[in-house]
Specification:
183 residues, mainly alpha
């Protein structure tokens, strides 16, 4: 079974195309959703993602030195989206990012909880303000650290902390409601 670290090593050391394909299959869709949530135009979003992976392949010798690949890819995606928008004389506004395209992967196998419970949590996440939802996704789903999210979105770590507090408070309220119904 391949792991991300194993694949990074294989690509960097041996130009292993199968390992690179594993990395692409594992990361391309979340990176695409991130770019698409910013620019809301499928063909340029696909092009940006493809450019990111082409550049990654071209600079594959440095791949093993990238500690957190998802953060690196998302930062590249943000830069690509920003460059694209700048070419249209627009800019990234976190409050305008289309949160509808940000996907959360709540798996019943991993969580071993009821479909109803998952539905309530998903609905509560969907109701978060766009910036809050984006930050929550980057931290909880993509596993980024607060500092990485702050750098990626060009905001302060304090803003990330505040938005996570809001998100977690809302989820806590949902959980309290569920507990009170079960009692």
């Amino acid at each position: 079974m391949m792991t991300e670290e194993h694949c990074k090593q294989r690509v960097a050391s041996f130009a292993d195309e199968a390992a690179f394909e594993w990395l692409y299959n594992h990361h391309a869709l979340p990176v695409f959703h991130f770019v698409y949530s910013i620019i809301r135009d499928k063909p340029p979003a696909e092009e940006i993602v493809n450019d990111i992976f082409v550049k990654l392949w071209q600079q594959r010798e440095t791949l093993a030195g990238i500690r957190h690949l998802r953060a690196y890819l998302l930062r590249s995606a943000r830069n690509g989206a920003s460059n694209y928008l700048r070419s249209l004389h627009q800019f990234i506004d976190l409050d305008q990012i289309s949160a509808a395209h940000i996907r959360f992967e709540l798996s019943p196998e991993r969580l071993s909880i009821s479909k109803e419970f998952i539905g309530m949590i998903t609905r509560s996440i969907d109701q978060l303000p766009p910036k809050c939802k984006l930050i929550f996704k980057l931290v909880k789903e993509d596993g980024l650290r607060y500092r990485e999210v702050a750098e990626l979105l060009d905001i302060s770590v304090k803003t990330v902390e505040t938005q996570m507090t809001i998100a977690l408070r809302r989820l806590s309220e949902v959980l309290e409601h569920i507990r009170s119904q079960q009692s």
